[in-house]
Amino acid sequence: DVKVTQSSRYLVKRTGEKVFLECVQDMDHENMFWYRQDPGLGLRLIYFSYDVKMKEKGDIPEGYSVSREKKERFSLILESASTNQTSMYLCASRSTGNPKGYGYTFGSGTRLTVV
Amino acid sequence: AQSVTQLGSHVSVSEGALVLLRCNYSSSVPPYLFWYVQYPNQGLQLLLKYTTGATLVKGINGFEAEFKKSETSFHLTKPSAHMSDAAEYFCAVNYNTNAGKSTFGDGTTLTVKP
């Protein structure tokens, strides 16, 4: 079964720490995405990547950066964590080569708490 | 810009009753439409999708949705709700199949009463 794996389900970090959220997919998908999900605000796109070493800002990139050195791995970096970054973070991937489907495959999410 | 509106952030039905979750999109070109389901403390899972062809699409767990271009709608239905259907449901739209970026609705939480 194809998978998107996020390295941590729950994470607690201190204000000001540099935080790395890792996401790995085993489907050879070109596109990868990072969203955050907050009650009442739905899913908001932080960053996405069309392919290796390519990245674009989403709707709320401030305070975040990303890295995609290999096709299967897309990392989200919180440069200096703040309490307003406490959220559920969802990684997703998508193939551009599948003629039958263009939906996303999501990871299980990382619930990050910044204290 | 593409947008998706889900009418009703919370829907409650009795077990065995019809489930209807509403989704409308804005578009000047044909869209690709999706419904996802999210169970508590999990990621989203693709429920069904419309790309081209038949406007009534069937998904997993007995759900189906109908693409109505004239109404710019893609409502999700299930004839008979089951307790296990309780979850949050998201409608999403993508206009460019190669761009890869979908826009999501705000979600509808479905509660199923015994």
Output the helix-strand order of chain A. EEEEEEEEEEEE
Largest interface: A-B, 28 and 24 residues
Low-confidence spans of chain A: pLDDT under 50, at least 5 residues? Answer: none
Sketch the topology of chain B as an H/E string, one letter per element: EEEEEEEEEEE
* Shape designation of chain B: globular
Radius of gyration of chain A: 14 Å
For the sheet with most strands of chain B, the description reads: 6 strands, mixed
Q: Calculate the mean pLDDT score of chain A and round it.
A: 91
Proportion of beta-strand residues of chain B: over 45%
Strand content of chain A: over 45%
Name the structural class of chain B: mainly beta
Number of strands of chain A: 12
Work out the helix count of chain B.
0
Features:
heterodimer, A: 115 residues, mainly beta, 7-stranded mixed beta sheet, 3-stranded antiparallel beta sheet, B: 114 residues
Short description:
The complex is a heterodimer of chains A (115) and B (114). Chain A has 115 residues and is an all-beta fold.
Describe the protein's architecture and organization.
Helices cover about 0% and strands about 50% of the residues of chain A. Chain A has about 120 residues and is mainly β. The relative contact order of chain A is 0.33. The mean pLDDT of chain A is about 90. Chain B is mainly β and about 110 residues long. Chain B is about 0% helix and about 55% strand. In chain B, a hairpin with a 5-residue loop joins strand 6 (about 55-60) and strand 7. At the A-B interface, strand 6, strand 10 and strand 11 of A face strand 4, strand 5 and strand 9 of B.
